[in-house]
Amino acid sequence: MALGLIPADSVLSEISTGYCEKKDFDDILSFYIECKRAPDVLIGNKIMFSLCSNFSTKRADLFLRDLEQLGYVPDVRTFAILICWSCHEGKLKNAFVYVAKLLSRKLKPDIYSYNALIGGVFNVGMWGHAQDIYEEAIDNGRAPTLSTFKVLLAGYCKARQFDKVKEIVDDMVKHSFIQLALLEDPLSKAFLLLGFSPFAVKVKRDNDVGFSKTEFFDGVGNGLYLETDMDEYEKKLTSILRNSMIPDFNSLLVEECDRGNLKSAYMMINDMSFWGQEPSLTAFSVLIRAHCSSRSNFKGISSLFDKYQKLASQLDGKILNLLVQALNKKEFMHKRRIIFDEMLKRNVPIENESYTALVIGLFKEKSYRGFHYYWEIARKDDWVPKLEYFHVILDYLCRQEMIEKALELFESLLVSYNHLKFEICNVLFEHLCVTGFTGIAHVCVEELNRLGYFFDYMAYAYVHLIRGFFKEKKFPEANSIFHLMVAKSMTIPYEVSLLLIPWLCSTGRFEKAIALKEIVLRSQPSDSFSIYTALMNGVCKQRKVLEASHLFFEILSKGLIPDSEIYEKLIQAHSRVNNLRRVNELFGVVIRRKLNVSIPSYRYITRLMCVEGRFLQALSVKDFMLKENSSSKVIIYNILIFSLFQTGNILLVNTLLKELEQHGLILDEITYNFLIIGYCRWQDMTSSRQCLNTLITKDLTPTNRSLRELISCMCDHGMIHEALDLSRIMELKGWVHGSSVQNRIVEGLLSQNKLQEAEEFLDRMVEKGLVPDSITYDNLIKRFCSYGRLKRAVDLLDLMLKRGNIPNAATYDFIIHSFCKCKKLHQAMDFFTEMMVKKLKPSIKTWDLIVRNLCEEGRTEDAEKLFIYMTGMALTPTREMYCLVIDRLCSDNKFEKASEVLQAMQRNGYTPDFETHWSLISNLSNFSDKESSNRSSGFLSRLLSESGFAQGKESKSKIG
């Protein structure tokens, strides 16, 4: 080009399309010559197809030679265009020449070329070669299409080769294009496929001995003739053969969509592009509609829109609505919004389903700004979703706390679906109560009830409210709703009573729980067992074993048979109050009735037996559980081991471990962790460490508690080196060191005066990312401050803050004291201010120290401001603080200011000592010599009087 710019392929395609539409092919060639480049194969094929369709294959061939001189490389489709159009022009010889050129380039003809050649040989009466071409296509891996079989059927019917027609029908069956019934005539099927009506064409045998009607003969010499409208017959067959030569991609595309074969349809679109053609608006619409109906290959729809933007902009409103509803995957939300915006721009009527799909899609996309924007548009258009989608939308609105929108939508649905008001209200109250807005649901229920909207529904609404209040832990509100239901003589659903009864028991209202049980049993006796179970559960949790026993006998008296759950609740309740005798009785009943014993109940029984020293009995229960629970054997051993450690019976633990080994049972992580903690608790460090080593060897991970217990135990016994060795193993494994682990190791090192090692350990924790988010260094900060390592103390404090953990006030006090001790008041004040910001209260000693240091540096004004802060925090400055400030003010000759502080001191109930007071008076006296004597005398008299030294008055102020 003139400026040396090279147009993009998309630009070249647009330019070439414009030239093709104008049929100005000489200018196209000149344009590419000027660009000094050849078109790509897509553009080249578009030009070739346009030349063939508007002029001839001869001109197209000449143009191809010119393009090849520019470097254009024709592909299979280029030659297919020339082959097909040559057959269409009746130039069969030229078509085979192009086939030869194609083969010489080591390319294979595509199926469209084979279809054209088959049609071409039939057109010139060379039907005998059609089979050869068909077989060659299959040998070259070109799968026949429905068009291939149609041209073969049409050609053989035209040549009256009906035996061949039958063979082709058989092939179509083999390739699964059609199905042939057992007694169905293949010829009739063939005529039907070619578009003839079932009775329009008949092949008959000539049996007339007189006048012969024979037109052709079959394979065995029988004379046959056709009974049909011969002109119509020949015309239709000729049309099929002629149309087979140039593939009508639009028709083929529509056919594939009608058959539901979207994969083939999409391949057709691809082939169309390589043939230099574009789909018609009708075919494009059919394809998009088929995609939307199938809800598949949305990526394909998106790419089609990008590729054929002009056609996409012409789609009607129905198709666009379908698209908005179909593009429901997250990755296509942007495309959906583009289509929707185009619909708004074109004023296309938008269906309710489209608004619903867009709104729900925006939920999934979490596009809150987009949601609010399109929500307003939808509501202005009076959009109301169907009830089935109201669930989804309402759930999102409630979870995002958009209650106003939820209620607005609710009102619209009541108007639009008045006959479904029960279902709509049910959905609203359910979602409000589930998402934490039961209070709002309560207000809505009362308002609708006031309006007389659904009195019959009130019981269901109250059930939702009770469930919601229970979920939000608002038990008194739930109880008030329950009493309201009772007052209105409403039936109490048993599922509500299952919530209320345990709560009433937990609050000590056993009489009300029993009364509720009676109410429910009168109205719903069939649910009595569930009610008794709920009441038993509530009573047992409160360890009311006497009430539980009475309830148990009541259950028996009603003729009900307690199940394993009731026995378990009783066993657990008696275990909690250490009633081993009753536990044994209940356990015996369970065994005799062959009921299941749950793992939680076994844990209670085992714990109690071990606490009571009944170890042999505990072993017997273990053996029973092993027989009944073959899949939980290790868990059963774990529970017993834990209980034995609680009572210090290590000898029996070791016996159980040998038993486990004899039975071939493999210890799990829980077992090893129990062993590590248990041995530590009873000071058996060797066994504990061996268990940890075994655990690590088996590539299992110990719990933080196990590591914490073991390291703490090592440090308690002065085994700091062993603790460090374990820490290094933890480092290699990448295990986080909790607060307790780090604190114990560092304190152990500090206790041995190994300051450098302690700091190096802490540095490693940070460098290797082994510090947990919940880290606390309060004790270590104080320890480092006491050793004078202020920088390290501050680093630890900063690390805590970065992890979101605020040190306690005592830690800040310690740091402030340490900086003051080092005469670094500026840094001390920074931490003091930080305490104020974090709303931590410094100790009185810290206030005193800061005031003292401020006075020493002559910053008495700042010291006075601290008094104001203390008053705001409901703290009173000490007598010593006041005296420090007064003395400093006097030394700075600020006597009036000193007198003001003295008066503030007295207002807080303090009496200054004589020296401080006399010093201030003396200084004020000297100061008064420079002023008028009258004024001074009045001031001193007033000061003496206010200070409690006036004659005839006794001070009632406190001292110190």
Low-confidence stretches: 929-960
Radius of gyration: 48 Å
Span from first to last CA? Answer: 100 Å
Instruction: Label the structural class.
Output: mainly alpha
Strand content: under 5%
The side-by-side strand order for the widest beta sheet comes to 1-3-2
Count of DSSP-assigned helices: 53
Overall number of strands: 3
Q: What is the average of the pLDDT values?
A: 83
Helix content: over 70%
Gross morphology: elongated
Largest sheet: 3 strands, antiparallel
Written description of the protein model:
- The protein has 960 residues and is an all-alpha fold.
- The protein contains 53 helices and three strands.
- Strands 1-3-2 form a three-stranded antiparallel β-sheet, with no helix packed on it.
- Helix 5 runs antiparallel to helix 6 (92-104) and helix 46 runs antiparallel to helix 47 (825-837).
List the helices and strands and how they pair.
Elements lengths: L8 H14 L2 H11 L5 H14 L2 H13 L6 H13 L3 H13 L6 H13 L6 H10 L6 H13 L3 H13 L11 H8 L8 E4 L10 E2 L5 E5 L2 H14 L5 H10 L3 H13 L6 H14 L3 H10 L1 H4 L4 H10 L6 H13 L6 H14 L2 H13 L6 H13 L3 H14 L4 H14 L3 H13 L7 H14 L3 H13 L6 H13 L3 H14 L4 H14 L3 H13 L6 H13 L3 H13 L6 H13 L3 H14 L4 H15 L2 H13 L6 H13 L3 H13 L6 H13 L3 H14 L5 H13 L3 H13 L10 H9 L3 H13 L6 H13 L3 H13 L6 H13 L3 H13 L6 H13 L3 H13 L6 H15 L4 H14 L14
Question: What's the gist of this structure?
Answer:
The protein is built from 53 helices and three strands. By secondary structure, it is mainly alpha-helical.
